[in-house]
Write a structure and sequence with these properties.
- This protein is 45% helix and 12% strand.
- The protein is built from 26 helices and 15 strands.
- A hairpin with a 5-residue loop joins strand 11 and strand 12.
- The longest helix is centred in the middle third of the chain and has 19 residues.
- It is an alpha/beta fold.
- The strands form four sheets. The chain has a six-stranded parallel beta sheet, with helices on both faces.
């Protein structure tokens, strides 16, 4: 069983017998229509694209209610195109990892072309120019990670030879401008706040600089700034796509699926002819399109206004997912866990995040309307975090914790204050923040040293707890005032808010010798 069998046939009945879902549409007809009248180009050929946007389009195509595929372009790691797309006719296998330990397998055939987005690949670049000049083109989307939207003064100066992704996009937009200044939507699908604004900032910076250099006319700047012509909607995306997993490879090998190996590029991208991903997924997009859009709502995308997208993001980041992750990362490191899924079998940790989410955070959750917060957090607790296929570690999630606490916990505390709620009702959120002071010491609950995860403020904050010892008996915890008054870390002065003394007292309990973390965690979770 190989992916190329799908394109060239005949298709063995073994595929169906082994539970593989095959495309239900005429792929050759879709490829022909897409080539002639493209509607969607996506930049970022990585695993999240194949597991989510391309899979959404597959559902739409299988429904028979749409007839155009997606053209994928890669502007950073060209080996992905050469090694993970073209040898397999742009087909891939999506392996959906279920929380009960089973898998679902679906061949994704919605990608009709794969291109290397750089002028050094003349034929591919010419095709991209042709696509960008097509009146039918409706959307250019991105999964290039937050740093992919960056730009530098040096790259701005390169003009049409810019190497950063936003420079290349701006060069292609200039081709569309010259072809008639036709409308288009640039749609970020990356997991970062207000992601459409990051696209906008990049495109505007290149356009303005090039106009200043005399490379493009002022009219081009007006074109990219006219949001009736070029729009930059926000979105909220949520789906985990880990690296190719050895357990999945073994399952596929046992099926007789031969394209089951990992590909590692020179740029250290881990990819494969298959993508393994969790079952739960959300994509909420601001419905602000200037030239139409593919009907992705048929595949589960939720379209809404900007305010709603923002509310969904806040619900996820401030209440229903990210705070739970951070709590698990702090206490997971202290209790010597290396897998998030394993932590979910720990009654104290599961109780901590469950009660923190439902009891303490839910009263101030921002309800977006399109997603019920209780349903979202229920999926997190019951399907996502316990999933044995998700090889995520508390040590990875603990990276840059000092940059996350103000959003993940500070916003909830501020909401309590703003709404006049009783801060004394907060027990487990203070316990997490107290745990951070214990985590910074770098000694786990058994008394063994561990290395805290990378963090730009790690050395500075660790120095604050340096006078403290993990031991029984009295010691002076007044040094913690230097920590919990840090507005740059927590978003507010926790002593001014009235929580500082409570958190300091909890921290003292957590420092009271080996075993104190477990004892203190159990005490407060059980009482809550």
């Amino acid at each position: 069983m190989k992916l190329t069998d799908i394109e060239h046939g005949p298709i063995s009945p073994v595929w169906e017998e082994k539970g593989y879902q095959l495309p239900q549409f005429d792929r050759e007809a879709v490829k022909a229509k897409t080539a002639a009248q493209p509607t969607w180009v996506h930049f970022g050929a990585g695993n999240i694209f194949r597991a989510f946007p391309a899979a959404i389009l597959q559902q739409v195509l299988d429904s028979g209610k749409y007839d155009r595929g997606v053209i994928v372009a890669e502007s950073f790691d060209y080996e992905i195109i050469d090694k993970a797309y073209r040898p397999y006719d742009n087909l891939s296998l999506l392996v959906c990892l279920q929380s009960d330990g089973s898998i679902q397998k679906k061949v994704i055939a919605s990608v009709t072309e794969s291109l290397k987005a750089d002028p050094q690949f003349a034929e591919d670049w010419a095709r991209l120019v042709e696509v960008f000049c097509a009146p039918s083109l409706e959307m250019v989307s991105f999964t290039i990670t937050e740093k992919g939207y960056g730009f530098s003064p040096a790259d701005l100066e390169k003009g049409m030879g810019a190497q950063f992704a936003m420079g290349k996009i701006t060069a292609l937009l200039y081709e569309r401008y010259k072809a008639g200044a036709m409308p288009l939507t640039l749609q970020s699908m990356d997991n970062c706040s207000h992601n459409g604004d990051k696209v906008k900032a990049g495109v505007w910076a290149y356009a303005e600089k090039w106009a200043e250099m005399g490379i493009v006319p002022a009219g081009f700047v007006d074109y990219v700034k006219d949001e009736s012509k070029i729009s930059y909607p926000w979105s909220m995306i949520d789906k985990i796509t880990p690296r190719p997993d050895a357990k999945v490879q073994k399952m596929l090998e046992e099926d007789g699926f031969e394209d089951n190996y990992t590909i590692v590029t020179e740029r250290h991208t881990f990819t494969a002819p298959f993508v393994n991903a969790e079952e739960t997924e959300y994509l909420v997009i601001e419905d602000k399109y200037t030239n139409g859009r593919p009907p992705l709502e048929l595949g589960g995308v939720m379209y809404a206004d900007r305010e709603t997208v923002d509310k969904v993001e806040k619900m996820k980041v401030c209440t229903c997912l990210n705070p739970l992750h951070t709590a698990m990362s702090i206490y997971g490191c202290l209790l010597d866990y290396t897998l998030i899924s394993a932590e979910m079998a720990d009654e104290d940790i599961r109780g901590l995040i469950t009660k923190m989410g439902y009891i303490e955070a839910m009263p101030v959750v921002v309800d977006p309307g399109v997603l019920k917060p209780a349903d979202f957090i229920g999926a997190v607790l019951n399907r996502r975090l316990p999933n044995p296929f998700m090889p995520d570690a508390p040590q990875r999630i603990a990276t840059d914790t000092s940059q996350k606490l103000s959003i993940r916990f500070g916003e909830t505390i501020k909401a309590y204050i703003a709404q006049g709620l009783d801060l004394h009702e907060l027990v487990l959120i203070p316990l997490v923040l107290a745990g951070y002071a214990r985590y910074l010491k770098g000694i786990d609950d058994a008394g063994k040293a561990f290395e805290p995860s990378p963090d730009p403020l790690l050395a500075e904050l660790s120095a604050i707890v340096a006078p403290l010892e993990v031991k029984e008996g009295p010691q002076d915890f007044s040094c913690l005032k230097q920590l919990y008054t840090r507005k740059d870390v927590f978003g507010l002065d926790l002593y001014e808010a009235g929580l500082g003394e409570k958190i300091e007292g909890m921290a003292a309990e957590l420092y009271a010798g080996p075993g104190a973390v477990r004892k203190t965690l159990h005490k407060y979770v059980s009482a809550r």
